[in-house]
User: What shape does this take?
Amino acid sequence: MIRTRAVVRVLAAPAARDPYAGPVGSGRGTRRIGRAEHPRRPRRGARAALPAPGRDRALPASADGAGVLVVLNRSAGTSVVRSDPANVLRERLPRAELRFLEPGEEPGAVVAEALARPVPPRIVGVCGGDGSVGAVAHVARAAGVPLLVVPGGTFNHFARTAGVASADDAVDALQAGEGVRADVAELAFGETPPITVLNSASVGVYPDVIALRERLRPRFGKWLAGLLAAERMLRRSEPVAVVVGGRRAEVWALFVGVGRNDRGIHAPLQRRELDDGVLDVRVLHRGSRTGAIAALAFGQRTASVLRRLRLVPERVEAFTSTGLTIDVRPRNGLPPGFVHDGEVALDAPAAASADLSAPGYRTRVRVVPAAMDVYRPAARPVAG
Assistant: This one.
């Protein structure tokens, strides 16, 4: 197991002050996540009444959609309780250019092509899940244009954190010119150009869990599919060996989240902050398969579920950083995949493996503060 003091000194770039520091744990910035350390979580639905994180920021407004391009991903997950985002956009933004993706088209490539026009859009939007949002955010960042996020996927982690719960919320913010400047992370394999990460990135068995979950979801639904996928993969898989700062560990998963997260979250898939300038790292060391299954299957619901079932993983480390380098060793002769914002990356790790003399591949993750402007309704005080 990576020892606490070494983790903070060797693994991490200079870390911001950790608000979790206190009498628990054995070193500053690192925590064993155990039952006694979890703060009381707000009751379900309480967070919706709180202002979204981040400082409000004035952005260019568009009352009717003039100058706005929105790409819509038909293949993203759907919700039976959410109005069709396309209908909302057509009705409220009649002058916006709505570009529906064809099968096989990449949202980032479509936006890049539009931005190369003689008269490019001044605002780009995306309707889809976190993978689509991340791809468009990467291009928007490079072009320096603000991003309009319209929830249109299954999870919509980034949109929910930003305070955009519906297409109407997104349009309200655009028409009022309200937004926030958000941090992102950059993930690079070997010497390849970095990928923009909005929520989290992970290595270990989690990419395998995601791939199997997507195959099982049409039959079982997302929550049961997640549990079955985690159980099957952990039953047949072995931990992944990683080297961070010269120290080796065998882990079920290593998660790097953008922004500090709740201490009770073992798999930080949805961020809690937008502009605190740090990465939040969780390391699920080799240990109980049952605890690891629950942690990977339930995601954001892990803390309460595991406490009730008395299945808290006993070997979890948590620390904050501004950047870290991870060497990933091969498993069964193949480089383990990496997942970022729900998208599984296999080709990039394999290509990076070919560039190293030692087996495996190297990846670097760093936080980029104040990286992009995102539309969201202004965070207003909650009535007492």
Summary: Residues 201 and 340 are 4 Å apart (CA to CA). The first helix runs from residue 4 to 11. The domain at 60-176 is CATH 3.40.50.10330 (Rossmann fold).
